[in-house]
Design goal:
- This protein is of the alpha+beta class.
- The chain has four domains: 2-153, Immunoglobulin-like; 157-249, Neutral Protease, domain 2; 265-409, Neutral Protease Domain 2 (Neutral Protease, domain 2), CATH 1.10.390.10; 430-505, Roll (Pdz3 Domain).
- Helices cover 28% and strands 28% of the residues.
- The chain has a seven-stranded mixed beta sheet with strand order 4-7-2-1-11-14-13. Strands 16-17-18-20-19 form a five-stranded mixed beta sheet, covered by helices on one side.
- α5 (273-290) packs across α9.
- The two termini are 42 Å apart.
- The structure holds zinc ion.
């Protein structure tokens, strides 16, 4: 048994005090902090937040310590952890709440990772977590269970409902979730219908009001940061909740063999990440349609938007879906490199490919729902599990392992849906925010004129510009082949370039219901729960 105790002295310091008590399994046991957390497939630097460790801890590496103790001795080590930034996967402390993810701040004792853990929190606030509570003690089967269990302590509100013998709770702080009970119930029912069972007794949505959207899945709960004041708040809330709930099957209980068990010390790439995230995104939004929250046309508009995102990514022509999955670990969005041309989201293409695969299967009287049930029975998935179960080698060779253009028109026609593309006006291939170029699409007019990310774009065709929309506006009376002038600042100097406009506008995609009474579409989107 390992005892973890969490406390704090003054919330304004944003510092958690952590004590770990255990019996040394050998001389000088090592304590290790994870280098990443499940749900975000990038190495992180949690150890930078650790400070003021007790003298009986000696540092061996960036995130490895050793305790000065002999085998069999009782050991207690202490350290502090700075928790001043909130997202769904971080740890955060201020005067309004304490929120933590064990993966960021609890070290494990080398050799004792599978031992039962007890967690105590020194607070008068109520506590919400997926961990079973025994009086003041929270109990975890082992270290993996402990760190998969985020905890909120604070003045939260709770709504509950029962579904398929389980209690589902919306626990929220800084956000009113009462109106989401019925829509979430509808989504939950649709997802249970896909797998045929809900393998838990209790589930908690832990929701924080915030300034952006972010979610992380866990075994019997999820964390959601929701963007207060967002214009599409309700739709976005339900889409995120639906995505995270689907993960209780896909990722948390059914996972690539590379994750079983998780190796928290290093990157663990898998070509299946698109199936974990993309198929989850697919069912996440499909559940909004199947439950009746979205109309058929609203759902198709959503898919059209996802296709627009993918079709504006140059990397789709040279990087396969399986490769983006495998390389998730090397494409950290916070580092400045040519991400816009080198990378696209496997969430986005994964969702689109899942939709096209589902429709293809449905035209053969099968479905992705059936595939999911076969995979659910396997639980631990080898790298070829999905292609083996689907058994359509050309589909996988072209669209998952290859980079062939996706056959949108042909496949959506099966569902009585017309696919339309229209070229938008040129923006020089630039994304511009607050006057600074964020990305330059390769092959675009902007790329031909030598523009670079991080250049400060001053003027386009004689007009001052600050955003992508400004660039589009500045070009609204031009046509392909016209010459225009751009002025920008780089490396402390101001430069002028003349360029010739190319036909490089983004592609606008529309999906229209053409055939009102289409049996395949009706079966695809019908309510099941
Ligand atoms: Zn996800």
């Amino acid at each position: 048994m390992i005892h973890y105790a969490l406390s704090w002295r003054n919330t304004n310091e944003h510092l958690f005090d952590i004590a770990i008590r255990f019996v040394a399994p050998h001389d000088e046991p090592r304590l290790i902090l994870p280098s990443w957390r499940p749900g975000k497939y990038q190495l992180q630097n949690f150890a930078a937040n650790v400070r003021e460790w007790t003298p009986n801890l000696r540092k061996l590496g960036p995130n490895v310590w050793c305790a000065e103790a002999k085998c069999g001795e009782d050991v207690e080590v202490r350290y502090r952890y700075w928790a001043g930034v909130i997202d769904a996967g971080s740890s955060y402390l201020d005067r309004s709440e304490a929120y933590f993810n064990g993966s960021t701040l609890f070290m494990w004792v080398d050799g004792l990772r599978s031992d039962e853990c007890v967690l105590t929190i020194d607070t008068d606030w109520p506590v919400a977590t997926q961990l079973p509570q025994d009086g003041k003690e929270l109990r975890a089967r082992n270290y993996d269970h402990l760190i998969d269990s985020p905890v909120i302590a604070g003045p939260f509100a709770t709504q509950s409902f029962e579904e398929s013998g389980a209690t589902i709770q919306l626990v929220s702080i800084g956000c009113d979730t009462a109106r989401f009970v019925e829509p979430v119930r509808g989504i939950v029912r649709e997802q249970i219908a896909v797998f045929g069972e809900l393998p838990l007794n209790e589930y908690k949505f832990l929701v924080h009001g915030g300034d952006r959207w972010h979610g992380v899945e866990h075994e019997d709960s999820c964390s959601m940061l929701v963007k207060r004041g967002a214009s599409d708040f309700d739709e976005h809330f339900l889409s995120l909740a639906s995505h995270e709930f689907f993960h209780l099957w896909n990722v948390k209980r059914m996972m690539p063999a590379a994750f079983a068990p998780y190796d928290y010390t290093q990157a663990t790439p898998t070509r299946l990440l698109w199936a974990m995230e993309g198929i989850t995104s697919y069912y996440g939004d499909l559940s909004l349609a199947r439950s009746g929250y979205w109309s058929e046309q609203r759902y198709l508009s959503h898919l059209a938007h996802e296709i627009e995102l993918l079709e504006s990514s140059p990397a789709r022509t040279h990087l396969s879906l399986a490769q983006t999955s495998f390389d998730a670990w090397v494409h950290d969005g916070t580092r400045p490199h040519d991400r816009g041309n080198a990378w696209y989201s496997f969430y986005t293409k994964g969702e689109i490919v899942a939709a096209l695969l589902d429709l293809t299967l449905r035209s053969r009287r099968m479905s992705l729902d059936e595939v999911m049930r076969v995979l659910w029975a396997e639980r631990i998935l080898d790298e070829d599990a999905l292609s083996r179960v689907v058994d359509d080698p050309p589909f996988f060779a072209r669209y998952v392992d290859g980079v062939e253009p996706l056959p949108y028109a042909e496949i959506f026609a099966l569902a009585g849906v017309r696919y339309e593309e229209r070229r938008k006006r040129s923006t020089l291939g630039l994304k511009v925010k607050d006057g600074v170029i964020e990305s330059v699409r390769s092959g675009s007019s902007g790329a031909a004129a030598d523009l670079l990310p991080h250049d400060e774009l001053l003027a386009v065709d004689g007009l001052r510009v600050h955003s992508t929309a400004d660039v589009e506006h500045a070009l609204h009376e031009t046509k392909t082949g016209d010459e225009i002038e751009t002025i920008f600042a780089r490396n402390g100097g101001v430069m002028t370039r003349r360029l010739q406009l190319k036909d490089d506008g983004a592609t606008e995609i529309r999906l229209h219901i053409e055939e009102e009474d289409n049996a395949l579409r009706r079966e695809w989107l019908r309510r099941r729960g």
